[in-house]
Structures are given as C-alpha cells and as structure tokens.
Amino acid sequence: xxxxxxxxxxxxxxPRIYSREAVLFGCILLLVLFVLFTAGVSRMYxxxxxxxxxxxxxxxxxxxxxxxxxSALTDYRNAMVYxxxxxxxQFHLAQALAAAGRGDExxxxxxxxxxxxxxxxxxNLALARIAAHKDLTSDALRYYHGAIYGxxxxxxxxxxxxxxxxxxEYLLDRGLQRQAVPEIIALSDSTPTNDTEQLRTVGNLLLxxxxxxxxxxxxxxxxxxxxxxxxxxxxxxxxxxxxxxxxAALDYFDRLPEKDRNAPGVDEMRKTTRQINDMNPFLxxxxxxxxxxxxxxxxxxAASRLQQCASQPGRSPASPTxxxxxxxxxxxxxxxxxxxxxxxxxxxxxxxxxxxHAFEMENAAAAACGEPEGADRAxxxxxxxxxxxxQ
Length: 391
Known about the structure:
Strand content: under 5%
Largest sheet: none
Order of helices and strands: HHHHHHHHHHHHHHHHHHH
Shape: elongated
Low-confidence stretches: 317-322
Oligomer: single chain
Radius of gyration: 41 Å
Distance between the termini: 158 Å
Structural class: mainly alpha
Mean pLDDT: 85
C-alpha cells in the first residue's frame, strides 16, 4: 500500500502566472494597434473626402469651360461642402459668381482671399474685372495695379504684360485717355522687340491713344523684320500721316496690297496724302517750275473754296470786313501780282507768300463753313503742318 505522500494527481494543470511587465506590454501593443487602425480609417475617410471634393471641382471646371455657369456654381459649392477652407475652390466659385452676374457675392469671397494673400495676382485681377464691369474705375485701377505688381505662379512677366494690356484697353474703351497713356507707354517699354504679335498689339493701342511718334517707332520695328507686314504698313502709314510726314505716309500706303489700299478710311487718307504732295512746294529736290506749279494750284484751290463759302446763305461779304472770312475775301479781291505758275517761277521768292495767302483763305473758310473736304482738306492740313492755324 502506497503512501499518500507519494500520490500523483492526474488532470490538473499548474496556473501560468504573467508578470506585470508582460501585461503592460500587451496593453501598449493593443493600444498601438488600435491607434494605427484608427489612423488608417481616418486617412481613408479624409482621402475619400478629398476625392469627392476634387471630383466635384473637376466637374465644376468642365461645366464652366462649357459655358454652363449654373451647373458650375452647383458643382463648386458641392466641392466646398467637403473642403470649405480650400482657397482654390473659393476662387473659382467667385469667378463663376461673377460670370453669372453676381459680382457682389463673388467679391466677398475674393476679399477674404485677398486678406490672406494681398499680393495674389489672380485675386487682384478677378477683383479688378468685377470693378471694371460695374464701372468703378478707381477700384478697377487699384486692383489692376495690384495684379500687375502682384505674385504669379506661372509666367509672371507674361501675365503682368497681359494684365496691363487689359487695363489699357479698359481705359481706352471708356474714353479715359489721360489715364490710359501712361499704361500704354509702360506696356510699350516692357514689350520685347522680337515679339511681333505683342508689338502689333502695342502699336494699335498707341494708335488709339494718338501717340503717333511711338506708334510709328513700333511699326517700323515690325517692318525691319518683315517689310511686307500689312498691319505694320497700315499702322506706319496712319502714324506718319498724323505726324504730317506725308512723303513717308504715301510710301507706306503705296506698299499696301490693293485690297487694303482701297479699304474705307484708308483710301481717303491715301488720296488726301497724294493731294497734299500735289500742292506742297516745300518738298525737297523740286525744280523752280515744279514749286511754282504747286503753289499756283494751291492758290487756285483756296480761292475757289473761299468764294464758295462766302456765297452760302448768311455769309454775304457786303458789310465791312469784320470777320476773318470777310477779311480774307476782301484781300483776295485786291489787285495782286499775277498768280500764274509762270509768274511764280520767275519770282521764286514769292512761293512762301503765295502759300501763306492760300493757307489763310483755307483757314478763314474752315472757321466760317466747317472743316473742308477733298483737295481743300489736303491744303488745310498742309497749312497746319507748316504751323499755320486759324486765329
């Protein structure tokens, strides 16, 4: 019989005892796994939110480009539901609001963006366009200048040039030439001499602003690279004509293709230029006879114009010479030396006197009967180019 002390109990396991460190490590591990799981879920959620926001924004961009402004507004607003603080979304929503005629709403978004990024070229330009649309000129000028001197992410030099061009066109369209002139000059000064298209744009703006000398320089630059550039030839001809450089103007007009020479307005300027040269005895390298013939023609044209003007109702010269017209008519009837070209040729020193008399008659008729036309206009313009104007 065995002793109770030596009895072995079968079926019972000894309990495993875990140390405090092991328990703590397990808890930490579980916590880390939980945090990683939560972060992963969070990242997936935010990623899906961003995807939704970007999808709505892309859809809004497509709608805006297609001209469907109403749908674009809805799409942009849906994008902002998922990303309300996204500056890009706010900017494009503001642009769509402006395009929908709701500029005041768009302006509020833009002003908030401007407060955060006062140097943004895009935001300043958008505000300038809203102000320009509402004819708020002082605001438009401020924001346009903010865009010109602002920050641009891509091609800043090109963007600033484009904005200044837009500003110049806005001012010219509203008849604000005084404000437009410095902008156009600055645009001209910042235009590369090898960029024909930009030079062409600047040249046409200079023409609109009646900056004839600068315009002629720009068009000559274009012609130095391409002597047959039709736009530059017309621009140079127009500039030279208004600068009273009639020989140069006629050369540019004659180099134009026939279809351009005969265009309305162009044909009239060209004919006037020819008529001016036909009566201009001050052209270089003219013979004595040629000068005399031109001066005699000018005198005959002016005398006819004066008589025609005086014969109009209410223009009778019977009363004492109290007006410029009456004075000129009285002087034209006074005995005078032979005004034929042969006599002028014999006395070439009288050319200046003859032309001065012709200019005075044209000015008197213009003051009484309005600006002349045809050959009379040519003679009148020639007189102004010689510094002779109506008193």
